[in-house]
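In response to reviewer comment 3 from the previous cycle, which asked for concrete evidence that the modeling workflow produces usable outputs, we include below a single protein chain processed end to end. The sequence was submitted unchanged, and the resulting structure tokens are shown without manual editing.
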Amino acid sequence: MSVLTTLQHRVRTPFASTPRGWIGIDIGSRSIKFTQVERTGDRYQICQRWCVTREEDPQPNSQPNSQHKAINLADKKLRIAELRELFTRSECAAAVSMSYHSLRSLELPAASLDETRDMVCEELAADNESGDADYVFDFWSTSEAADQAAKITALRMPTSLAMGIAEDLTSAGYECQVLDGLPCALARAVTMMSGKHTTPVVALDLGDSEFTFVLVANGKPIYTRVLRGGGLRTLMRPIQQALNLSHDQAMQLLIRYAVSPPHPSGRPVVSGPAQMLEQPIAQLINELKRTLDYATQQFRISKPSELVLLGGGASIRHLPECLSHQLGIAAQTWCLPTTKPHEAADDAQFGVAAALSALRWEQRSCS
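The workflow returned the following structure tokens.
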């Protein structure tokens, strides 16, 4: 899948013959997930995972040029240098949440890869809302024909942010090979779960600061949208305020009770937490319906056959059943086929990091 920027040339290492992938590092707005997968044939298995949570939630868009400070992997409290010893390799691939990117959809004349890159660069330079003089970007085609215009998706972030991530990881003992785009990592995660689908599939990353919708067709992200209304912290706010709970306490409540499952009689027993979540869940469902309608019409495709939930919000109790009932699409949380039953509940929040780990073997260009 597409990468935002390749940060180092690949070199042969003493681990080249091992079946383990790179260290996948999913840098979210509140937590950082580390995962390493093992590959046997075309099957993957998570062999190591770890999650680090920041004491304070960073606000990447609170002030100009604050993104690198917000990520700050060099913070000693995170102890990521110590985590390096948990893994059998030093090479890693990383991705950051959509809060740190700008996303553009373009329609350009059909051209060679190099010509298309030049045109994308010109378009981004002409519409530089962030004002970043120096940035890195990558792009991929979402639909094309030899003699027609190509629809392109482009991701961009400041060079200082991308290089800052690589430098922080290098200082902690990691060799950052690739900084991947989140939409591409989500598409890869879906493919790792159940192979390439013959029908479109939606990957929904329920992160702390935003919910990211990615429509995947033939293993490629053809449409990406950050849903309105905020992320998990916004969804949990009514519970936190009503019960005076911390973020972690509210999350535990969502895991245990949360959304009421669909009831055959149509008259379910609704718990207190479920009542508090009615409005934000209804807003999420409305956003998903609007986004699904737009995407299927824009790309002239059939309704997606499946909705795959990833990220911390995927562990909300009965959320897959609720979304499936409301949207008319089968929904499930992300997990690998090789995962043991007692570990499946935790897999979803490590799905992106697992997809990054798999970049050791996978194609690293959608273009």
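The chain has a mean pLDDT of 84. We consider this sufficient to address the reviewer's concern, and the full set will be provided in the supplementary archive.
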